[in-house]
Structure formats: structure tokens, C-alpha cells
Design a protein that fits this description.
Elements lengths: L7 E2 L4 E2 L3 E3 L15 H11 L6 E8 L19 H13 L3 E7 L7 H4 L4 E2 L13 E2 L2 H20 L4 E6 L4 H6 L14 H4 L1 H14 L4 E7 L10 H14 L3 E5 L19 H8 L6 E4 L5 H9 L5 E3 L2 H5 L3 H6 L3
Helix pairs in contact: 1-2, 4-7
The structure holds flavin mononucleotide.
């Protein structure tokens, strides 16, 4: 039986254990999105006890109009590579593997953040936050796909062990997936196959840039928990298609319901476990479960009971650097 201490070994990546620090915006980058001394200090603090198998570094914008918040990290230009290398060095020194999450916020922002025109799948109000965007043209979609691929290449050049494509929490790729925000009438809208066309194109373009041996994770907003939104039945189909396209690990979270959704028992350790359990039944690749886990014994049990392959612990570690050292001793 697998436990949280069992290494995860795939052809592309080896993790010494199954404890993951999920992407958590630390808001410590410079105004230009470069990794700062504070960023390095923060990641050193949370990993220095050398108990975390994998860190998925916070969402980093692939292009300026996709920036989600001030002091967010960027992977949009070649200038970001050298500072990112320093971050990878810190994480590798602390014996954890490192993945970079790459993101475009789409319409989940206000113009104030970027000074640029907002873009989205359709020109409708983002159900979670933000303003009405301009609908992306076909040329702009092709350009965005390229920007995801270029950013993935920069992540690889920075020394990251893999890259994670963000399609959760109401950001741009999630806006294409969800019928709540995608009202397009072209080949990127309508039926599910069309709503994940951009995802499949991004995965394909990223794969071309990073090569066959490199890990591609994808964070999937697997349900919106809203009438007319994405359901777990959709996400089972999406997961299968993403894996066929080349995704190596599925990191499961919420869609427009966010990462701390209403309507689930927030006291439940691993409140998205019904989603990971369902997705695990339809794909062979490892799955990450994050949400509400504050206790390693429960996190371990979720792996033992095969509800997930990897366990993410976000806020508990973010708020207490000693968490992983203390909790891992209890196993
Ligand atoms: C301050 C903060 C920043 C976050 N930043 C990101 C992010 O950059 N990318 C992402 O996919 N999720 C992000 N999340 C969601 C977390 O990865 C995680 O899914 C959520 O906190 C629930 O897990 P937890 O209960 O272990 O904290 C963030 C959450 C918080 C509280």
C-alpha cells in the first residue's frame, strides 16, 4: 500500500515523498514580476526542513495583460530567467523538486492591474471577479498559445523540473472550459470538445518546446459547483483528453467556485476528494488533491485509500514554516 512517504517515480520525475506545496501566490516579486530576495527567503523558509517532495511555484504570468495581481511573479520575458534560476537553486538545495505554474488571468482582473485591455473567452462578466473583457480573436488565441509555450520554455531554461498549466479558479483557460464564461460560437465554444480546444493546443505547443522527457502538469478547475457550469462528468472527459494530449499529472481544484468553494464541508480534510477519486478512475496518470488538509495523518490516509496520489498542503505551510517538519515526524 502506498503512503505519503512512498516516493513517486515516473519516467519523467522522481519525488522523494508525496507531500506537495501547491501554487500559492506569495506577492513578493518586484513590480516587474522578478523573483526578489523576499521571494527567495520565503521559499527557503518553507522548504528548509527538507520534508516536501514537490513545490509547485506560484502562478506566474505569461504576458502582461494576463497579470493577476501586483507583485505577482512573471515568466513573460527572458529577463525573468536568471532570477527564476536562483529560486530553483534554493528549492533544489532544500531537496525538493520544483514545478512552475504558468498562467494568464484573462478577465479575472481589473484594468487597473495591467493598464492593458482585458481579454477573455467571451465578452461577458467573469462570474468570479474582474470586468467585462474583449473576446479574443482567433489570431489572438494563436498568439496566446505561443506565449504559454514560450513561458514553458523559459521555465525549463530556469531549471524547473516541470511546468504546470493553470486552468482553474476562473482564470483564462478555465474561462474557455466553463460554459458560464464561454459563449463563443466558433470552434473554441459550444460543445465540450471545442471548449477544451485551446487547452489541447497549449499542451501540444508546450510539449514541442520542452520535449518528451519534461513533466507537464495541469491544474484543472474540475467543477464550478454552479448551475450551468462545469461538472465532474465534464471533467472526467476533459481529463482523459488532456492525458491523451500529453499531460503527465492532473492537479485538481475548483473552477469558478475557487479553491475554497461554498457547498463543500470545509472541515473535511481534502474537500475535493470526490473529484480526485472520480478522475483517478478514468486516467492512469498521478493526481494531486489539495484543499483543507492541515493534518498529515488525514493526508496520508487519502493516499492509502487511493483517493489521490499526491497531497497538497497550502495554507497550513504558508502560515507556519515549521508545519512540514513537525507533521512529517508523526508518520
Ligand atoms: C494566498 C493564496 C494564494 C494562492 N495562489 C494560488 C496560485 O498562485 N495558483 C493556484 O493554482 N492556486 C493558488 N491558491 C490556491 C491554493 O493552491 C490551494 O488550492 C488552496 O489554498 C486550498 O488548499 P489549502 O487548504 O491546503 O490551503 C492560493 C491560495 C491562497 C490562500
Amino acid at each position: 500500500m502506498k503512503s505519503i512517504l512512498t516516493p513517486m517515480i515516473t519516467e519523467k520525475i522522481t519525488l522523494k515523498n508525496r507531500l506537495v506545496y501547491p501554487p500559492m501566490a506569495s506577492s513578493k516579486a518586484t513590480e516587474d514580476g522578478l523573483v526578489s530576495v523576499e521571494t527567495l527567503k520565503f521559499y527557503d523558509n518553507i522548504t528548509r526542513s527538507k520534508n516536501i517532495g514537490l513545490v509547485i511555484v506560484e502562478h506566474s504570468y505569461i504576458s502582461i495583460e494576463g497579470k493577476a495581481s501586483p507583485k505577482q511573479t512573471s515568466i513573460a520575458t527572458d529577463e525573468t530567467i536568471e532570477p527564476m534560476k536562483k529560486l530553483v537553486e534554493v528549492l533544489h538545495k532544500n531537496e525538493t523538486k520544483a514545478i512552475l505554474q504558468i498562467n494568464h488571468a484573462g478577465s479575472a482582473i481589473t484594468k487597473k492591474i495591467t493598464g492593458e485591455e482585458l481579454v477573455g473567452a467571451s465578452a461577458i462578466l467573469n462570474p468570479r471577479k474582474g470586468n467585462i473583457p474583449k473576446e479574443l480573436s482567433l489570431e489572438e488565441i494563436a498568439d496566446l498559445v505561443r506565449k504559454f509555450a514560450n513561458s514553458a520554455k523559459r521555465a525549463k531554461l530556469s531549471g524547473f523540473d516541470g511546468v504546470e498549466i493553470h486552468s482553474a479558479h476562473g482564470y483564462l483557460l478555465n474561462q474557455f472550459l466553463s460554459p458560464l464564461s464561454n459563449k463563443r460560437e466558433d470552434e473554441y465554444g459550444g460543445i465540450l470538445k471545442n471548449r477544451i480546444r485551446i487547452h489541447l493546443e497549449v499542451v501540444e505547443a508546450v510539449r514541442k518546446e520542452v520535449g518528451e522527457d519534461y513533466s507537464i502538469f495541469l491544474r484543472l478547475g474540475a467543477t464550478d459547483y454552479a448551475d450551468g457550469g462545469t461538472t465532474i462528468e465534464d471533467s472526467k472527459i476533459v481529463s482523459v483528453e488532456l492525458v491523451k494530449a500529453g499531460v503527465d499529472v492532473l492537479d485538481i481544484s475548483g473552477g469558478f467556485c475557487g479553491y475554497i468553494p461554498e457547498g463543500v464541508d470545509l472541515k473535511e480534510q481534502g474537500y475535493f476528494q470526490s473529484l480526485t477519486s472520480a478522475i483517478k478512475k478514468v486516467v492512469e496518470v498521478p493526481v494531486v488533491l489539495t484543499g483543507g488538509i492541515t493534518n498529515i495523518i488525514d493526508g496520508n490516509r487519502l493516499i492509502e485509500e487511493e483517493k489521490t496520489d499526491l497531497v497538497g498542503v497550502g495554507r497550513a505551510i504558508f502560515n507556519d514554516y515549521t508545519w512540514s517538519e513537525r507533521e512529517m515526524k508523526r508518520i
